[in-house]
Every structure is written in C-alpha cells, then in structure tokens.
Design a protein that fits this description.
- The protein has 187 residues and is α+β, with helices and mostly antiparallel strands.
- The protein is 58% helix and 14% strand.
- It contains four helices and six strands.
- It has a four-stranded antiparallel sheet with strand order 3-4-6-5, with helices on one face.
- Helix 1 packs antiparallel against helix 3, helix 1 packs parallel to helix 4 and helix 3 runs antiparallel to helix 4.
- The longest helix is centred in the C-terminal third of the chain and has 39 residues.
- It comes from Parabacteroides merdae.
- Responsible for the release of ribosomes from messenger RNA at the termination of protein biosynthesis. May increase the efficiency of translation by recycling ribosomes from one round of translation to another.
- It is found in: Cytoplasm.
C-alpha cells in the first residue's frame, strides 16, 4: 500500500519541478518592463574567466523602464558592456563611467505577439512534462498489479488520485501562462 502512495508522490514531485521550470522560463521572457532576470544569461570576462554578471556587479531596477548595473570594480565596466552586447538581451547599454543603464524599449505589437507565442510554447512544454509524469505513474501502478499483487481497485483509486494531481498542475500552468500573456499584451 505504501508503494502506491510513493508512485503518486513521485509523480507530484515531477509535476512540481515542471511548474518551477515553467515559472523560471517565463521570468526570462521580456515583457516590456524592466526585469533583472533578463540579464541571467549575461557572462562577463573577469580575470580571464567568464562569470555571471551578478557576480561582478549589483543589478537594480530604479523604474519600470530601466535596469541599472553598478560594477563592484570600475575597471570592469567595459567588460560588462561587452558581455551585454555579446548576449541575447538585445539592448544597447549606456555607460557613464560609474554605472551602466539599460533602457527597456516599449514592445511593438508584433513583438508582443511573438513573446506571447513563446510563452504559450513554454506552457505547452510544461504540460507535456506533467502528462509524462502522469503516464509514468500510471504505468508503474499497472505494473504493481502484476509484480506486487496490488488489488485492482486500489490501483484504480491511485490512478484517480494521480489524475486529480495532474489536473491541479495543468490548471497551474494555465494560470501562469494567462498571467504572463496579460503582462506581455498590456501596453
């Protein structure tokens, strides 16, 4: 009986990881507002090794359209600028010798639609992961009838529980996507 609960719990853990991954991916999609997470992919050469931007500078958001980067050492400001230019951020940094400012441009309608489409794709990927976790759990439950002698009615109840958990996580994915789409499409 304990094995049955293990299968359900393992499936729920996988589904939780899918939600966390989706949340992380959606946070990297630029929605026209300043978000320091868009700089997570930026690497800066620091004493000959590429390091994350957050290891060599403080990243702040003074207002909704600006990201401000304050380097811990003034001499690496050019390296930070180069790292931003070489990354996929797509924003030209402004350097005043002390800090680097990134002005987040307003999104065009076409760009908004592309970002919404990208968000939808990320949500679909998360749904696929959740469905796979459900499928794996149900397969393990069916195997437990043959190998462990689990009664069929117990297995069916556990399948129903896995389905309930699945539905809960699919709903969370839909909520996360709807919130991100609203954020992107709001001018």
């Amino acid at each position: 009986m304990a094995d049955i609960k293990q299968y359900v719990k393992a499936a729920e853990e996988k589904m939780t990881f899918a939600i966390e991954y989706l949340d992380e991916q959606l946070s990297h999609i630029r929605a026209g507002k300043a978000n320091p997470k868009i700089l997570d992919c930026v690497r800066v050469m620091y004493y000959g090794a590429p390091v994350p931007l957050t290891n060599v500078a403080t990243v702040t958001v003074p207002d909704a359209r600006t990201i401000m980067i304050t380097p811990w050492e003034k001499k690496i400001i050019k390296d930070i600028e180069k790292g931003i230019m070489d990354s996929e951020v797509g924003i030209t940094p402004e350097n005043n010798g002390e800090v680097i400012r990134l002005g987040i441009p307003p999104l065009t309608e076409e760009r908004r639609r592309l970002l919404a489409k990208q968000s939808k794709q990320e949500a679909e990927t998360a749904k696929i992961s959740i469905r796979n976790a459900r499928r794996d759990a149900i397969e393990q439950l069916k195997k437990s009838i043959k190998t462990d002698g689990t009664p069929e009615d117990v297995e069916k109840d556990a399948e129903a529980e896995v389905q309930k958990v699945h539905d809960k996580y699919i709903k969370k994915v839909d909520e996360l996507y709807a919130a991100k789409e609203k954020e992107i499409m709001t001018v």
